[in-house]
Every structure is written in structure tokens, then in C-alpha cells.
Amino acid sequence: MADPEIKSYAPHHESQSAAVTESRPAKAVLMIVTFAFLGIFLLLPLIVVFNEAFARGLSAYTEALTSPDTRSAIHLTLLVAAISVPLNIVFGISAAWAIAKFEFKGKAFLTTLIDLPFSVSPVISGLVYVLLFGAQGLFGAWLKAHGIVILFAVPGIVLATIFVTFPFVARELIPLMQEQGNGDEEAALSLGANGWQAFWYVTLPNVKWGLLYGVLLCNARAMGEFGAVSVVSGHIRGLTNTMPLHVEILYNEYNAAAAFAVASLLAGLALVTLVLKTLLEMRYGAEIAATRGH
Amino acid sequence: MKRFLFGVATAAGLFLASSQAWSADTLLNASYDVGRELFAQVNKAFIAGHPGVTIDQSHAGTSAQARAIAEGLGADVVTFNQVIDIDFLVSKGLISADWQKDFPDNASPFYSLPSFLVRAGNPKNIKGWNDLVRDDVQVIFPNPKTSGNARYTYLAATAYAKEAFKGDDAKVKEFVTKLFNNVPIFDSGGRAATTTFVQREIGDVLITFESETRGVRREYGEDKFEQVTPSVSLLAEFPVAIVDTVADEHGTRDLARTYLEFLYTPEGQDIAARNGLRARDASVAAKYKAEFPDVRLLKVEDVFGGWAKVQAEHFAAGGLLDQTYGSR
């Protein structure tokens, strides 16, 4: 079902012929520049993080990670991701479905709107919720009257996280679904499947790799978000302090080893995401290339 | 898929239902950004004497804290390191205007001062404020436009100069300008300035609260740095207050008062002194005399006529700070 057009976006070893036009020295220079750049800006900081984390020895490292404040920060971070990622999966699939499979007025506007969190500074994303739900905000008085706490509590953190992460799944799926068109679904429907079956047995399998990509990226950002969460958190130990916020506070009070220990957990998470992504590509490379159109 | 949808619905339901429950046995203390260790110890000691009580802690820059409380952060008490940030809450009607009379010593159970940290052996022989304007000395402190810590440094230097030049405003301005000219980098906060001084090894002297210099030495090596206490500096209060609206809503006023009063007890004072803050209690102060050299402390009220006036004359846009800072 993969048409040749899509195939040309496949991993680079298949299209290596394009590089032959470059001269050898130019290729070497490009390679050196790329590796030096990656080494300085990506690898070196990573090494520094782990180096600092273990600067006071292994026992200080484990002690930092098992302290009650750190443990509750880890719990909260996982909880926030566990709520916001599934919600964004539902949202991402619905939005991509609507945009890719239907024609309606304001479609371009909706697509732009989905991109908004990418273009807005996270701090602003957080402040928006303060303006909406803060005591002096738009809904502040109503919320207070009904005893609902959103800001400076878990709901506020979840909302801010959903806001900054919601483009990830949708963005991954929209071009994919658009490229695939309605053909497969129409075939399924004409063969007697109902709408739900068409979605479950045709659409979802077609987009599963794109979806997985989106989920991985969404999850990484949900756990690592700092700016927006910092604004709405209230920074209460054991209640509303996420891992990135905990790193900052430890660092600020001259506890670098503990700060970097927690940071190394976050870095480890990023590495796991990266490894998962690479494994997926290696194991299912051809299939991903076929279903993933961009 | 159905199970998945059920999971999502449950999560969403939990999320909507999770509002925080307040109880009369729980206090939220909104505090300054580097006070975590101090209040971890204070709370442990307090709870030992008041079983069943829970103290939650929130730490961030106090201007951000004050803003968060105004927007609904349910802090029963504040323990800040800036008086003006409590005044902000007074202006919002959350704290009564006479809060400084609510507790002894202007509602500041302990205090500190802008003090100096120099490199081991004090190679530039820095003893006091007048050494900071020497041509061969580089001074590190953060940007007073963004850092409360640096505002104290600015005010302390100004207070010193006012006294040294007997109120000659032109000379005071010249002194402060010279001091600013000796600062190679203005970082945005105290922590960043410390990094500049300690890790990038820029500058001969770091000016920060005396209570923080010990944290720096512990983290980066006791033998690498020396504390120098100038003979005169500015009193930096660590004000505390009950947030009236919140405490009344939570029914925690009595507990909040007991908690803040605990900071004045010998036990609370001892914990503060062990964390680098100067104690008000005479017996505790005597016990830690060796760690806190004598210093004559000027007060903002006496030198500048109070924080409101400082804000208007020095820190407001176009004020004296802008004139000095802009002339760099």
C-alpha cells in the first residue's frame, strides 16, 4: 500500500546517491562540524550532569533520590504524565481525524491553533491559567465559591502540562492521516464494517507508529516541562513540586549533588525515550517508513 | 479500547475531583527560595512538640510567592526575606497593615546582613565598603533591578556612604557609581552571581547575605573562601506574618500564631543560628558569638525613612538606582 512517493522519505541509506555529488573534503568537514557540534552541545552537558550527580559518591546519590521530597516529586511527575498523555492521545487522534478526513470551515484556523503552544513561551502558558483561575482571575471568585481548587494544586499542573504538550500527538498524526486519505476506511465501510470497526481495525493500525512517536515526545515533554508548571505550581514540598522544579530548588540552596542526581533521572528518562525511538526504527524501520509520511 | 477509554475517563474524573482538603491541623508556610533546610529543621522540632500537626512548605523567590498568594496560594503563614513583599500582601488586603506589631522585633525573629566573601587568604585585603571602590578590586553581586539580595547590597553601600560622607548626596552617588563600575557582570539572581564568583572565578569579593556565605563555603570548600564582615552594614530582616484571610478560612489562626512564636523560642532561635541567621535571643546569640562577628547595623527606617520611601525614591523607574545603574 506504500506508494513510491512516500518511500523516498525513507531512512537515508536508501538515498545515499544524493551525497555523491559532494567532494570528499567537503564531506569530511561537514561530518566534523556536525559531530563537534553535537558533542559540545548535547554530549558534554549530559556527561557533566552525570559527573556532578555522582560527585559526592554513590551513597549521596541514592540518598538524594530516596529523600521524601524527591520521591514525592517523582510521584507527582509520573501522575501528571499519566493523566496528560492519555488525554492528549484522545485529543490528538480526534483533532487529526477531524482535520485529515473531513472538510469544514475554519480548518486552517484549527491547525494553527494546535500549533499555538509551540510558538508561545511556556511562562505565558502558565500565566494564562493564573489569569483564568487565579483568585483575581476571570473564574477565581466562582471557583472559590464552589470550593474548587485548580491553581497551585495538581489540577493546575495537569492543565498547564496538557497545554504545552497537546501539539505533539496531533502534529504527528495530521500529515500522516492526510496522506493516507479516506480510501482504506471507505473500503472497510463498503465491506460492511461500522464506523468504530473501521477506526479500530483500519485507521489505528495505519497510524500506530506515528502515534507512538507522538506519545513518546509528548511524554518526554510532560515530564520535563518547567516554565508553565513553575508558574502554576505553588512549589509546595511533597504536594505540588515536580521533578524539574525540585532540581531548581536543590540547586538554589547549594545542594548541587542532589540537584544533579534528580536531573540525571530526567536525563535518563530522555535517554530511554531516545533508545525506545531508535529501537522502534530499527525493528520496524520499513514499516514505519511506509506508514510515516514525513 | 473500551478499557482504555474507561481509564481515560477515570483519570479525568480523578483530576476534576482532586481539590485540596484543608484541615485545622495543617499549615502551609510560604517561604523564601533558600530557606528549605532551615524550615525542614524548624518544622521537625515544632511537630515534635505538637504531635498531629502537619507543616507544608513552599519555597520560591518571595516576590513570586507574594503574587501566588494574591492569586490564591493557600499559605497560612509567610516567612519571607523581604519586607516589601509582605507589604504587597497588605496592599491586597490579605494581611493586616500593622503586621509588624503582631510579633516581637518588627515581626522578624532572626536577621542577617549583606556581608563579604573573599578568596582564601584575602589576597586583595578587603576589609570594608571603602575597599570595594578601589581600582584594583572587582566586585560581584547580582542585578539590583531583578534581585532582592542585590537591593540590600545597594542599600547597604548607600547607607554606608551616607554616613561616611555625612549626607553629601553628590559624594554618595559618586561612591555608589564607582562601586557599580567595579562590577564586571550583573547576574539576574544571587545564585547565578555565586556561580560567577565561585565557578567562573571572576571577581575578588562576592556580596551576599551573611546567612548564605556558609552555604557557599560548605558546597564549594571551607578552605577556598573566607568570610569578611564589614564593620557596618544594613539590617536585613526576615519578616514573618499570618495571612489573615487564609488562616481565618482554614481555621488555623491559633496554630499559625503558635508556629510563628516558636521561631522566637530558644529552640527555634538555636536552629536559626545553626543555619547562619543571627538570633534575637540573647542567650542563643551569646552561644554562637564566635560565628557572628560584631557589626553595627543600620536600619532602613532610620537611614531611608522606611521601605515605601525606598521603593519610591530608589527602586521606582527613573529612581536613584536607575540613575546609578544607567550611568555605567
Give a structural overview:
The complex is a heterodimer of chains A (294) and B (328). Chain A has 14 helices and no strands. Chain A is mainly α and 294 residues long. Mean pLDDT of chain A is 85; it is low at 1-17. The radius of gyration of chain A is 23 Å and the shape is globular. The longest helix of chain B is centred in the middle third of the chain and has 17 residues, at 148-164. In chain B, helix 2 links the parallel strand 1 (26-31) and strand 2 (54-59). Chain B has 16 helices and 13 strands. Chain B has helices at residues 2-17, 36-49, 62-70, 83-91, 104-107, 148-164, 169-181, 190-198, 210-220, 244-250, 253-262, 266-274, 282-287, 300-304, 307-315, 320-326, and strands at 26-31, 54-59, 77-79, 110-112, 114-119, 139-140, 205-209, 225-228, 232-234, 236-237, 240-242, 278-279, 296-298. With 328 residues, chain B is α/β, with parallel strands linked by helices. The A-B interface holds A 82-83, 86-87, 90, 130, 133-137, 140, 144, 147-149, 151-155, 158, 200, 234-240, 249, 251-256 and B 1, 4, 7-8, 11-12, 14-16, 18-20, 28, 33-34, 36-37, 56-60, 68, 70-74, 191, 194, 212, 215-216, 218-219.
